[in-house]
Design a protein that fits this description.
Layout: H1 3-14, H2 17-40, H3 44-63, H4 71-94, H5 97-128
Helix pairs in contact: 2-3, 2-5, 3-4, 4-5
Length: 140
């Protein structure tokens, strides 16, 4: 096992659910961007490979949705990801980089929203959490 593989495995095993979701979004964006570039240069084989990987990441996003909590929100989010999958599939079938660009816009907006949500939740948690008690006091 290489250092890079060990590092990635450690990051995944120690990540919060929020961070894992972000990693999957980043994977979808990375591969969709690679597909966009490949299709623009008319490298359809590479485009197909990258689109397939991007769709696998989007499928992971869909699979990670928990409809037991806030089912209406989850259903809407699922429909957004299904749109992305269909758009990427159409891009592969039509060899159309513009369709990948459209899917990337949705993925990037979701990423931006997800990061903002994480920051808001962290701020709320910090404001509701009393400072840790160290057991030390100047007064006795």
């Amino acid at each position: 096992m290489t250092f890079a593989t060990e590092y990635l495995e450690t990051n995944i095993l120690t990540a919060t659910p929020h961070q894992l979701h972000l990693m999957v979004i980043d994977g979808a964006i990375r591969h969709a961007t690679g597909a966009e570039t490949a299709l623009q240069s008319r490298d359809f084989g590479q485009g197909q490979t990258q689109l397939s990987r991007a769709n696998q990441f989007v499928a992971e996003l869909i699979g990670g949705l928990d409809s037991a909590r806030q089912p209406q929100v989850v259903d809407r989010l699922k429909s957004v990801f299904v749109y992305v999958q269909r758009t990427l599939a159409d891009a592969e079938r039509k060899h159309d980089p513009q369709l990948v660009t459209d899917a990337l816009a949705v993925l990037r907006l979701h990423r931006k929203t997800w990061v903002a949500l994480g920051e808001q939740l962290a701020q709320e948690a910090a404001s509701h959490c009393p400072p840790p008690h160290t057991g030390f006091s100047w007064s006795t």
